[in-house]
Specification:
This protein is mostly helical. It has a domain of 78 residues. It has four helices and no strands.
Length: 127
């Protein structure tokens, strides 16, 4: 009549995870593929609105006065659109985003240049 409790059985040794070679698991069938964008989706990327916004703002950023904010917004939206197109291949708009980033940068720098030139001209101009 001992009041000792029985000792628990020894724990099983830990099992190491299986070693993979970095290749995809072919034991399961692949999931459904996203449909490729159609010609119209590539022409007007309606699923990627940031690409369209970047494209149009980039093109219109060459206008004086409005070009500085338009160029900045075109660059920002273009980067968001490129990230969305890279994350999901079924989302078109990468080319629109690149054009928007390029035109937005040119328009931004063009307007910044003229703001600096006009500021210097008005500050140090003839009196």
């Amino acid at each position: 009549m001992s009041s000792e409790e029985p000792t628990p059985p020894p724990a099983a040794p830990p099992v190491a995870p299986p070693v993979t070679s970095g290749l995809p698991d072919m034991s399961q069938p692949p999931g459904p593929m996203a449909p490729a964008p159609t010609f119209l989706d590539r022409l007007i990327p309606g699923k990627n609105q940031n690409a369209l916004i970047s494209y149009y703002l980039g093109l219109f950023s060459i206008f004086p006065c409005l070009g500085l904010p338009m160029g900045f917004i075109a660059i920002r939206n273009g980067r968001l659109a490129l990230a969305a197109a890279k994350a999901d291949p079924s989302v078109a708009g990468g080319t629109h985003a690149k054009i928007g980033i390029g035109c937005g940068a040119i328009g931004f720098l063009f307007n910044l240049f003229w703001i600096v030139v006009l500021t210097i001209a008005f500050t140090f101009g003839r009196k």
